[in-house]
# Entry
Amino acid sequence: MYGVINMKSSIEIEFKTLLNENEYNKMIEKFDLSDNIFIQENYYFDTDDFYIRNNKLGLRIRHKNNTWKVTMKKPCEDYLCEYSIILSEKQAKDYIENGFSLKDFGYDLFVKFKAKNITERAIFSYKNGNLFVDKCTYNGVTDYEIEYEADDSNRGIDDFKNFLKDNKIQYSPSFHKEERAFRSLGL
# Structure
């Protein structure tokens, strides 16, 4: 990775459900989010034999607010561990076009770009975390979801369930965006 390693790690405790378009629009209106929507592009990577996907890992480059960041996600107990490295635009575009090695993440693997997602996202604070209201487009397919990120899994799940109940949203299990992007391509 161009010999520059400034990796940051974090824990991601999130809960999510798919929304239908009507529920999405109600969330945007109810919480007055229409002027706070921003775009982020996610480029997903894997090996030719889908090692990342088959081992329940996640790997993406995200472009948001003129920042490019590569992130690997790994399951850790009841949450995800995230490891991220900020990239220059040149690095990111090179990786998207040519692939890259995962040695900096501790894997002797070479990955290539496989799928893309464009997310229109709005964020607002809720209880002890943040709610993300997303409109996601992958390969011409659009879906909607709401994610809740919390600091504590027990309190987080209770807060999320209460939010869904208070807003009359039926829980609908959701794959991660990366998996949805792959599936939109028939992978």
Strands lie at 8-19, 38-46, 58-64, 67-76, 79-87, 100-101, 110-126, 129-138, 141-150. The longest strand covers residues 110-126. Residues 153-166 form the longest helix (14 residues). DSSP finds five helices and nine strands in the chain.
